[in-house]
Amino acid sequence: MPANILNLSAYDVLGFEENEHDYHIDVETVKMPTSCPHCQSGNLVGFGRREQTVKDLPMHGWRVGLYINTRRFRCRACARTFYEALPEIDEKRSMAKRLAQWMGKQAIKRTFASIAEEVGCTEFTVRAVFNDYVNELEKEICFETPKWMGIDEIHLIKPRGVIANIQNNTIVELLPNRNKETVVRFLYYLEGKERIQYVAMDMWTPYHDACRAVIPQAVIVVDKFHVVRMANDALERVRKSLRESLTPKQRRGLMRDRLVLLKRERDLNDKDRQDLDGWTKNYPELGEAYRLKEQFFAIYDTGSPDEAQSRFIQWQKSIPPEIAHAFTDIEHAWGNWSIPILNYFNHPVTNAYTESLNSLIRVMNRLGRGYSFEALRAKILFAEGVHKHKLLQPEFERKPADKRQGEPVPGNFMYFWTEGSFARIVPKPPPVSKPYIPKPAEKVEREKNYGADISTLTRMIENGEI
């Protein structure tokens, strides 16, 4: 039996057995202790042995158990006994450190149950190892606090809060829920929160109140996407209400109506325009709802909050009474959130990642069965290869004043009495044999981590890479 079968240099292999599912390997440490851990004396004598069983990385599809012949010693100086230390063994549980590391990485890609079956342990053990692994990642991986922050939600088993870096299209945190207390706690302990300039969000009061309480310097901007989507929802209510009152034959005349009505007018082709013209003549309410939707979208084509508010008031007055019920939600939202909504026209910050985030939501919903929230969070935030990095160089630094050619050195001048007054004379710099050539400053590159790139994350999950 080769001594390096385990690739653990701290152990000698004494014996090997196998059965249908497992490898049983007898080992002992290569080096014996040379001093007592209590008094540091080197006067030691053997005092028995015991066998300790620990799990190691699976090999060849078989589970691996190490049977360590652990030696016990007695110190003649202090009369205390101790067992030899076991290198490469996890101190918290009976397994090799490399197995714990492997299980942590695998738990981001796989279910706890499948890992437990492969290793030969319980799901509880896998979960405990995974939690320790994630805690270590939390210490090692530090995401940059975004200057432009996005707060959104993703449905993983239930609604979760998503903290995003808008400028880099990345996710920097996944919260267990979207309650005010949870968001406040996250923001309160966020390093560099005073640098946050803008926060884009939907019209969810707990997000707004949490930001106002913890980061009052940040400008809150209601995301344009969430506002204009309400116009589409209003149009949908009118369309569905109309279809309920029609006969089956009349409904067939509205084929593809949803796809056409949700398009912007500038995106309609000739066939769409022809269909829309016919529906508008037959069903004026549908035409009015489409007009209101387009005019509401046009509010965002304005260049100032005052003009946007003026257009909204005009738009509101033009709503026909017969379909006013469908647009009530927009009117209430604009009235309750007018300042954050109008902030967009001075600070056009938007959750540009929304489309890719929606793709991620669909993927994660399919993947979410069988995973805990903690595992899904780790899969999103800490999977290898999904982080977006940027290398920054230090800012330009001027060379010291006494090294600049042709410039007087401050304080290097003399006063002379000339024609009844003092004159300030700055002497010429002494001649130099060689021009001063400063040494090029060493480029100090600092790697920053801006979070998990949403597009990369979606692609890797769809391809089964994580």
Features:
466 residues; alpha+beta; 16 helices; 39% helix; elongated
Structural account:
The protein is α+β, with helices and mostly antiparallel strands. Among the domains are: 1-89, no CATH class; 95-140; 224-346. Helices cover 39% and strands 22% of the residues. It has 16 helices and 14 strands. It has helices spanning 97-109, 112-119, 123-140, 180-188, 205-214, 224-244, 248-252, 257-261, 270-282, 284-299, 305-317, 328-336, 338-346, 354-367, 373-382, 454-462, and strands spanning 11-18, 22-29, 44-59, 62-75, 81-83, 148-156, 158-165, 170-175, 198-201, 219-222, 387-392, 414-418, 421-425, 446-453. The strands form three sheets. The protein has a seven-stranded mixed β-sheet with strand order 10-9-6-7-8-14-11, sandwiched between helices. Strands 1, 2, 3, 4 and 5 form a five-stranded mixed β-sheet that branches. Strands 12-13 form a two-stranded antiparallel sheet. Strand 12 and strand 13 form a beta hairpin. It is elongated and about 100 Å long. The chain starts with 10 loop residues before the first strand and ends with a helix.
